[in-house]
Design brief:
binds acetyl coenzyme *A, eight-stranded parallel barrel, alpha/beta, 14 strands, binds 3-methyl-2-oxobutanoic acid, three-stranded antiparallel β-sheet
């Protein structure tokens, strides 16, 4: 990268050697404000229409947002009409504040106030960019002149308050690009704006929203800026400190979390981080990060797939498969060691009543977010025996004995390696069935009869080979022992049973027996499985399967 010299180091840090935020903990939810319908919407190639906005607004209310920025009413007729519809059709829950954004220009302010007349609860949000870059490039004005835009805009808005008689009105001011503004100047503008609005006279607190409009530093620098601002603002109890981060450096979430440690009270963001360029802060992630630290976020994401589907339909955006919490693949392990650990964790969870969720590689219970356990393990050539046996157990109820896992895992791995792709659960099952279950060549059990006399069991079995059917007989202390002796007497010998397991599969009249038998032949272990409605038949098939597999090698 030969052009690094084009970019200069970040210049707007504060000097805060006694910073306190690194020792703080996130132990309560902030006030949340969704800006999906404004900042998110303004970044869409095709902004939402009124119907989509209505559906989205309902979604935000259902999730539990109490402050929702519903638009920039002076921007377009659609924005204006949507807000009017919300108010005129009484669609806003009584405990929800709608928020509207405007520049500090009189005709836009006036139109904004017109848009919200009659609303029960309103946040009037005005922004003026304060950064050096904006002052020089956009406004071409000095610090004092830019401050005057903010103060004059605030004064003008205040003169219109009588038009909102009967509404609960809060004022929000954003020094846009706060993070790239000289800290003293940002503080000075905000102080002047709050003094102009004078919350002691108007009532309520002023929301001072301090955005990283474009990210420009590491999150710790932003946290310092927020802590410094909170400490130095005169009349901290007259304001709510709000943060509004973007994600240009991919650290929108981190910036928000550190800024909360640094003293911010309120967070603006969007679902899944839709917004300008690389997006706004993803509120879902911050809220669920709190949740997974044991803090109730006060927002309900227990049906994330449904929220995601409404989001995708209304915005036309899609969610990356690895998007935190919401992506298709975030609860899926393909790799063997992860699968092994997840299977062990899930097995323990079934056996023990645990106080805390503790599954390696699954930081959150998928079911808490409306996801299932179905896809937590998927099989490809990176997968191992633990994952394969998890699928067989969870999807097909097959309790493959632990010592057999490596044999099944190897077969499945070979198939996936050969196909160079993921295997469906059905394919995993097929590999298991075809390679281990009821293997009937060269020897097949056609029929058998068991007789019991005292403790002795005798068997007569018809065994079909590729040429003919032979009847063999044997005695033993149980059916399997008798069958082994019958086989050995016929000369199909030179093996020992070294392991045996059985299970019932299914319920009621459709219950089947599954037997797993391991024989050792010439020092090598071979596992076979028998599946039958009859328990003894299942065991005999398991033994023959193991024997047949040893013959194939
Ligand atoms: C960081 C953010 O996301 S801020 C929100 C951004 N969102 C949007 O812009 C979406 C909605 N915006 C719009 O529909 C339009 O831009 C409107 C309606 C606000 C204004 O429209 P127009 O006046 O036609 O155009 P435009 O936005 O280009 O206006 C630029 C002028 O506003 C001035 N301006 C920009 N921001 C502000 C502000 N916050 N307060 C006062 N004046 C401002 C500029 O300096 C410029 O002035 P100039 O003409 O003297 O150079
Ligand atoms: C209007 C402000 C808060 C904004 O959207 C930003 O700075 O990103």
């Amino acid at each position: 990268m030969k052009n690094a010299h084009k970019y200069r180091p970040f210049r707007f840090s504060v000097d805060l050697p006694d910073r306190m935020w690194p020792d703080k903990k996130l132990d309560k939810a902030p006030i949340w404000c969704s800006v999906d319908l404004r900042d998110g919407n303004q970044a869409l190639p095709v902004p939402m229409n009124v119907d989509q906005k209505l559906e989205y607004f309902k979604l935000l209310c259902d999730v539990g947002f109490k402050e929702i920025e519903v638009g920039f009413p002076s921007a377009s007729q659609i924005e204006f009409d949507f807000i009017r519809k919300l108010i005129d059709d009484n669609l806003i829950p009584d405990d929800v504040y709608i928020q509207v954004l405007t520049q500090a220009r009189p005709h836009l302010i006036e139109r904004t106030v017109e848009a919200v007349q009659g609303a029960k609860n309103v946040v009037l949000h005005m922004y003026v960019a304060t950064s050096e870059m904006h002052r020089n490039i956009v406004f071409k004005r000095s610090q004092e002149e830019v401050k005057k835009i903010a103060v004059d805009g605030t004064s003008y808005l205040k003169t219109l308050l009588p038009r909102l008689e009967g509404s609960n009105v809060l004022y929000e001011f954003s020094p846009e690009a706060f993070n790239m503004t000289e800290p003293d100047f940002a503080l000075d503008v905000c102080q002047a704006v709050v003094d102009t609005w004078n919350p002691d006279e108007v009532g309520g607190k002023v929301i001072l929203n301090l955005p990283t409009t474009i990210e420009g530093s590491t999150p710790n620098v932003y946290a310092d800026q927020i802590e410094w601002f909170c400490r130095n603002f005169k009349g901290r109890d007259r304001i709510i400190v709000s943060i509004h981060t973007h994600n240009d450096r991919g650290t929108g979430v981190a910036s928000t979390e550190l800024a909360l440690l640094a003293g911010a009270d309120r967070v603006e963001g969007t679902l899944f981080g839709n917004g300008e360029r690389t997006g706004n802060l993803d509120i879902v992630t911050v809220a669920l990060n709190l949740y997974t630290m044991g803090v109730d976020p006060g927002l309900d994401f227990s049906n994330l797939p449904q929220i995601r589907s409404i989001y995708e339909r209304c915005t036309g955006m899609s969610i990356h498969p690895r998007h935190p919490y919401a992506g298709d693949l975030v609860f899926t392990a393909f790799s063997g060691s992860h699968q092994d650990a997840i299977k062990k964790g899930m097995d323990l969870l079934k056996q023990e009543q645990k106080e805390y969720w503790e599954i390696p590689y699954l930081p959150v219970d998928p079911q808490d977010l409306g996801r299932s356990y179905k896809a937590i393990i998927r099989i490809n050539s990176q997968s191992g025996k633990g994952g394969v046996s998890y699928i067989l157990q969870e999807e097909y109820g097959l309790e493959v004995p632990k010592k057999m896992h490596p044999y099944v895992g190897k077969k499945v791995n070979e198939v996936s390696d050969k196909l160079v792709r993921e295997l469906s659960t059905q394919e995993v099952y097929n590999v298991f069935m075809e390679n281990f279950v009821n293997i009937s060549e060269p020897l097949d059990l056609e029929d058998y009869t068991i007789k019991t006399k005292g403790k002795e069991v005798s068997i007569e079995a018809d065994i079909k080979t590729n040429r003919k059917t032979e009847s063999i007989t044997g005695k033993g202390n149980g059916p399997i022992d008798a069958f082994v002796n019958a086989l050995k007497a016929r000369g199909w010998n030179n093996f020992d049973i070294v392991d045996y397991h059985e299970q019932a599969l299914g319920k009621g009249s459709s219950t089947e027996a599954v037997a797993y038998i391991c024989i050792n032949r010439n020092g090598v272990d071979y596992w076979g499985v028998g599946r039958h409605t009859d328990t003894i038949a299942a065991s005999l098939h398991a033994l023959l399967s193991a024997y047949n597999l040893s013959e194939k090698e």
